[in-house]
């Protein structure tokens, strides 16, 4: 992970505000937004593919996607020119395939020898948000413009467009296989509420969603509060902070954002991995705050001292019972906005989350439970293994704390379980002291591990909800995975950044890749199409092609297309106009978030399989 520390530091400072519904550490440190955007990490060991992506497709030809459903190999959204501070999106050039050879030497002629093994799509960090929820802490925006997302009211429309994209994809560009499933790697919802979970399950399985809570006939949130701290898209008279930086006046925006949307549902099965926002309100708050979530007072403005106190508590992570926020909400109740109480905003326990997934009414294209089974429900264990494809196994792990923290970890029981699953699929592995271990009963499958948190965000912080169980950090997970040569990759989210990290080992077969994918709520709004191939020379390749939603890049000239498709396009465009983002782009890309070329569309070569162990 050489060369990643400056980026990791910036990302980690931003993460704890992301966990509470904000978007940059500017809200904590009081610094400028641009100063805390992640910086580019150089990739000295990457090279462009010898041939174009199109030339490397199988000779039989993969089915082409619909015109509006191309991958980022063909085209990408980017900010266009313009005189004003608000920039419209245009269709830019695609990003080429980059071959990553840090872990194994790419063999000549491997394109002609490849055997396709698997093809699937990763969603991560959808953050479907009830923006009217009283437990949200938008008031942190007083500490920096980047500490609130102007586009959050459109998360449902954006997610529906992503589902439409997957349904329109043809065969993968390197295997010709159609995606067999979608894996979500957590933060499917934003506020850990029952209604958001219902929206998420309906987006994935198909059906009608009304992204509105409280008063069914009126929006009751930050964006019509009259406070200039927030974008008021429908108010022509208020010169709020965001209009001053160029965001447009859009009459009817809030009415459109809360109108029913219909999702077609995924046409392929999907699996679920839990994230900190799925497990905790705001991704970092105590479950004891349920009364505030379902109540009728929404706090949108606090004193500088209160905002600083809450930011300090978030930064330290040492307030697992959210006593600081509880005191702020109680002390300022009289000045909070009165909203319509709604029991549907109740917080979800792990049991609630699992039971909702297991409900046959939410099966969609399958499987029932989306990875979870009755055994998971009985023990409230949110981890499992499943068959990805013939001779390919997936392992979904639960990296969340349950006591009010945005960071991740594994408990000892789960770590032992993970070791057992890895061993069951590995005829050759290594013990903790580096000695070779043989297991003649193993089925010898390629192994893909899925989690929400990425390795830098996993710590050994004690979990106040499980005080009797030691916790294990990302370095310990890396050490465990490196004992099993069949592990190809660890695929995750949480950072809202595209970043692919090699984890080398002195024994090459014990090396593997970590694939970290950006969110679908912040720039650059990406998912990944992932393909696995056997190269027929003792190596395997993992292809990681980024995918945008099906929404057109261009929004309506006069911002008057408020259809579901128009809103999904606007969702992306407003995110690309986040404070400080355009100024930090080079060549149309902000590499801190979108990643360098080798973090985007890449071929990840690794010594693969038991024969190499």
What does this structure look like?
With 613 residues, this protein is of the alpha/beta class. The strands form seven sheets. The chain has an eight-stranded mixed β-sheet. The protein has a six-stranded mixed β-sheet with strand order 12-13-17-19-21-20, covered by helices on one side. Helix 4 (155-168) runs parallel beside helix 5 and helix 4 (155-168) crosses helix 16.
Task: Summarize this entry quickly.
By secondary structure, the chain is α/β, with parallel strands linked by helices.
Observed structural traits:
17 helices; globular; disordered N terminus; 613 residues; alpha/beta; eight-stranded mixed β-sheet
**What is the molecular shape?**
globular
Largest sheet at a glance?
8 strands, mixed
Average of the residue pLDDT scores: 89
Tell me how many strands there are.
Answer: 24
List the SSEs and their pairings.
Blueprint: H1 5-19, H2 26-29, E1 46-48, E2 75-79, E3 89-93, E4 98-100, H3 110-113, E5 115-123, H4 155-168, E6 182-185, H5 194-205, E7 207-209, H6 241-244, H7 253-257, E8 261-263, E9 270-273, H8 276-279, H9 290-293, E10 297-298, H10 304-316, H11 323-331, E11 337-338, H12 350-358, H13 374-379, E12 384-389, E13 392-396, E14 410-411, H14 412-424, E15 428-430, E16 436-438, E17 446-450, E18 471-472, H15 474-481, E19 487-492, E20 499-503, E21 512-516, E22 527-534, E23 539-547, H16 564-576, H17 591-594, E24 602-607
Parallel strand pairs: 4-24, 5-6, 6-9, 13-17, 17-19, 19-21
Antiparallel strand pairs: 1-4, 2-3, 5-22, 7-8, 10-11, 12-13, 14-18, 15-16, 20-21, 22-23, 23-24
